[in-house]
Amino acid sequence: MTEKRRIVSGMRPTGPLHLGNLLGALANWVNMQDDYDCFYFIADWHALTSDYEDTRLIAAYTRQMMIDWLSVGLLPEKSTLFIQSHIKEHAELFLILSMITPVPWLERNPTYKDQMVQIKDKDLSTFGFLGYPVLQAADIIMYKAFGVPVGVDQVPHVEITREIARRFNSFYGEIFPEPQAILTQTPKILGTDRRKMSKSYNNAIFLSDSPKAIRSTVSQMITDPQRARRSDPGNPDICNVFEFHKIYTDQQKVDTINRECRTAQIGCVECKKIMADYLAAALAPVREKRTYYETRPALVDEVISNGCDRARKVAQKTLDEVRTSIRISYQGTIGA
Question: Fold for domain 6-189+297-325?
Fold first, then answer.
């Protein structure tokens, strides 16, 4: 039997997971479980890069994230699911890699530059925020991953990891493979206000939302901005609600809405109600599984413990190789 190639990816526990997380990453992670040896981790140390001033909710978000992962179909028998901070080897490899990573590599990181400009309510002028790509590199190459599933906007992050792995290998020998970016296709959906879906924008539909909450949120969604009155013909091609319809609504109904919107036979209020009902129905299995795991905390603890044990064994083996390669794996008398 051919051994499966390994992939690694993680998510920061900065709040409840929403549809953007599901369609942008989790759905692809679930689909990859049969084809790859999957290592998925909750990046709680990464959450500290921006939320270091108030860490009260990170532990709760971490547990809720694991429950969400299990609820959408990540399976501990198929994937290694673990928490970053439980594997202390990540911190050691991060320290070692930080010794060889040039500062200009980090300063040119497009995410670093963009967030320094955009985020004004937090002080991001910390070493942790500047150096998070090094920790990210440690997370990935620790498991000698073949690839990292990402969207096109995250490819530069993988490239920094490749450069760091290449530089380490040039100094100390071929220890780490250079991971590939595995581009994943994601549906084109935005938040209720047509910006990127994010809890910080207050425009998200959360996986844990009740049907009532879903209908309330969907009712606030911006539709075709050029359709001012009910009698005006609409254009589904520029309507975010219609993008949701294409994902969650029955195809025959989608075709009907497409036709009736363009001829003003259906209004935006009715259109949103229909979409909300289909969306709530589509998320019903997730809510059911969520209730199952929320009422079985010992089972969630077991999943976390087993996943961390599996990840730790791999990480310890890698760190043994790293220490030997940089000649600080001391045996017997130091300097002998």
Answer: Rossmann fold (3.40.50)
